[in-house]
Automatic annotation (TrEMBL):
Residues 301-776 form the Amine oxidase domain. Keywords: FAD, Flavoprotein, Membrane, NAD, NADP, Signal, Transmembrane, Transmembrane helix. GO terms for molecular function: oxidoreductase activity. It comes from Desulfofundulus thermobenzoicus. Residues 230-240 have a biased composition (Low complexity). This is FAD-dependent oxidoreductase. The chain crosses the membrane at residues 34-52, 64-82, 88-105, 126-151, 163-183, 292-311. Residues 230-280 are annotated as: Disordered.
Amino acid sequence: MSLKTSSRPRRAGLTGTILGFLPWILYWSLPAPWGPAGGLVGAAIIFGRQLLQKKPKIMDGFSLSFFALAALMLHGLHSPWFARWEGVLVFATLALMALASLAARSPFTLQYAREDWPREYWREPLFIQTNVHITLAWALAFIYGAGMTALNTLVPGIPPTPLLTHLGTITALVFTIFWPQYYPCRAVDRRLKEREARRPPWQNPDFAAWQQTRLFVPYNRPEKYGSAGWAGAEGAAGHSPGDGPGDGGQPPVTWESDITPGGTGEERPPIAGPASPLPIPLIRRTPPADRFDVIVIGAGIGGLTAAARLADRGLRVCVLERHHQPGGYCTSFVRKGYTFDGGVESVSGCWPNGPVRLLLEELGLERRIRFRRHGHRLITPGGVLDIPGSYVEFTNMLVDLAPHEEEGIRTLMGELQAAYYQVYQDTPRTGKVPAPPATVEETLSYPLDHPDFYRAMFYSWGEFLRRRVQDEHVLGILNMLTAYLGDRGPDTPAARMIPLMGYYVDGGVYPVGGSQRLADVLMEAVQEREGEVRLSTTVQRVLLHEGRVAGVSLGDGTCLLAPVVISNADPKQTFFRLVGAEHLPPDFVKRVERLRPSPSAFVLYLALERPAGLPERVFVRREGPLPRDTFGIGGFLLVSNSPLDPELVPPGCGDLTMITLTRLEADHLNRMTPSGYRAFKEELTRTMLDYVEEVVPGVTEHVVHVEAATPRTFYRYTWNHQGAIYGLEPEDGPEGPVWLDRKTPIPGLWLVGASVEPGPGIEGVVISGTYCANEIRAGRTGFTL
């Protein structure tokens, strides 16, 4: 069965394995004394051909060595001992060869299998494991053959039975034919089931039944019950939802079912289907305007994506945001007529089949927002480079920098471009986002359908590049974009870097009007689909009923009901502040506590009375910090958006933002006194201005406003743990990064954002929000993860 027409494994290496046994077949089939001679000639031809091709194989090397020894012992030395034990030695040699290859972690059948299978499968653990099993079967067959032959030699009265002697060999041959047809499918199926079993087992509510309930159950005002009717509601932390700052709004809602639908003399509302996911007395005490299908905590791009998609699919959604504008880090602010961005300087995924573009098209927003492509400049100790807008020209530029590595550079750039396209090739049928294989067939065919991207999954970014290129200058250029994912540099997983090749293939873009525009159009999409976005609204805690999500309580004591809550907030804030660790499994609590925050940043915003005179994005990489720098700044990014959108600044003026990553945590700055923190920021501002002045001499003379942001600033506006700008970092697992599951242990509670798969960046959180929405309610494609 051809790999081009089916993903089901074929007989891995069977042809090559049989060819490897050809000398032994000659040995066993030719009459004495020609058997050893025939084996020697056959082994010499096969192994000699392999040496010429520089592809020697373990088994053929063993075969040639054995038959050369046999020829010497039988025809040169005429050894009677060797002649007597020849049969045993044959099988013992083969068993030793098979066991030695296993000990060397290079099963001998793997070498033959690689000749029959495409290179894309060679690093697949399942492919290797299958050959381990086959090699072990041959080892056992050879040991059995050696034992049977030894028995015939030691007990002369037993007549030799070739069929019984070679029964192990026949069994191993049959195993070689059929095991690759069975085991990979079974192993993948088990792996997929185990992956699903590791996820919380709860199911989404029946939205049809819930919608009838929230629409038709009448609202009974609290005063109808009197003060005795309002029992203390149990929130996530064991307190009344009205406790804490802002208490004094709507009375706390009781979770007790002491009042039945008929207990007030009112007629029971029509409810179809399964029982309501929330108790009827609770629903009666909540105004209809505060009943929703889904509540989203945090109006970051991940939360807005999930909210807009679910509203588009007919659910009533409410987004709650503590800031006065949506977007999270995707926000803009104005100082003296200059518009700056809170954290987003470039957007990927806006190219054909890109998740951001597909999101906007599906929601009908593509005409409401315009993107403009920005340029890149790289400044290194070796000089200044302006990155071309064409991928071909970019490749040629790298070749000009290292002409001695032209072949490796062109091969690498071809692989990167192919891998990039493979990431997105399935998005039209996988819920508008790249998705991992979900079935046995998809998993087995994935390496062949996505060969270049699949290959990258086994490497760090630095390792993947160095397979082809060694020139440090070229490597430094290709490492430039790792800063968009954190501070791991070349140690960043290659699979996470491949999507960023879009900056070179299709170009990075910036929204006209500032990054706030993207958040605004997604908010509009929610509102136009009968959803709500409540700004300047703080969520006090997530409310639970019998261990399941029931809604949220707000800072003013108001309670909103919904059987599903999506948190776009920092996971540590979500679990330890909004839910409460006592409601979570202890192992899960320990895991969340272990998660390390990603880097934060120092940012300097400069309003200039003239244009900055730089390309829109300038990456600066230094050999080390300035002598007077106490902050350890080695590399940074300069951003100027006014060339892309002159309306962001007053006429004839310019803007410049400097961004550098730091591991300094917000807690350290929060412990400073007000005067100490003020002095810290003043020193930071002076130091960062020195770096800017080095790149743009004289620029400080044209500054009309300067402002600095620190990890403390980012924590203040986002509540991200320690002011992290890329969320919580995933744990390292044997098969790559291990992210928090978007499906939490609390039934009805989901996560989206930079701390869950696939990670940070506008494109990453759009994918995260889409994943979540697709799991809660499938889209028009019917795709769910």
